[in-house]
Design goal:
Elements (H helix, E strand, L loop, with lengths): L1 E4 L4 H19 L5 H9 L3 H17 L4 E5 L4 E7 L11 E8 L8 H15 L7 E2 L7 H9 L14
Parallel strand pairs: 4-5
Antiparallel strand pairs: 1-2, 2-3, 3-4
Length: about 160
């Protein structure tokens, strides 16, 4: 398994998008009722794909480690996305935007390798607060256990409203 920066190639883009789809569909599955799953599914349009991949390109232009992938040799099986330091003022900290591992590779250590890469990048960033933050669904026990293992603690709480 190779843990490396996102390659900015068409192949990496296509494979990252498939992983991103898995990430998004996983957010809606099993928590928040059927309407949550449907809302996440509906946003996965071609326009959203193009906007997301353009955003990835802008972030990795700042630091190619912002998106780090797990490459099994025959394709990408996971990724972690840490926002570039210029966006640290969102939470005055490093922001772990997304981490996802294909279900077939969960429990293999890939998520640990990706988290280690995220923490290393965050430590290299010049931040107002020495923290790595993320948001996680309180109902996602698997994710909660993973973050607990890495010493993440509750630090405020995000709330949202419909626009």
């Amino acid at each position: 398994m190779e843990i490396r920066p996102y390659g900015r190639s068409d192949t990496d883009a296509d494979e990252l998008w498939e992983l991103k789809r898995g990430f998004e569909l996983g957010l809606g599955a099993g928590t928040g009722g059927d309407d949550k799953a449907e809302r996440y599914n509906q946003k996965l349009t071609e326009d959203y794909r193009e906007q997301y991949l353009d955003w990835v390109e802008r972030c990795v232009a700042d630091d190619d480690r912002c998106v780090t992938v797990a490459d099994a040799g025959d394709g990408l099986v996971g990724y972690v996305f840490v926002l570039p330091v210029r966006l640290a003022f969102i939470w005055d900290a490093a922001v772990l935007n997304e981490i996802f591992v294909h279900p077939d590779y969960r429990g293999t250590g890939v998520a640990d390798d990706l988290m280690d890469a995220a923490i290393a990048l965050a430590r290299d960033q010049s931040l107002p607060l020495d923290r790595l933050v993320l948001d996680v669904d309180r109902e996602n026990d698997r994710a909660q256990a993973f973050y607990d293992r890495y010493g993440f603690e509750h630090w405020g709480e995000m709330v949202a409203r419909k626009l």
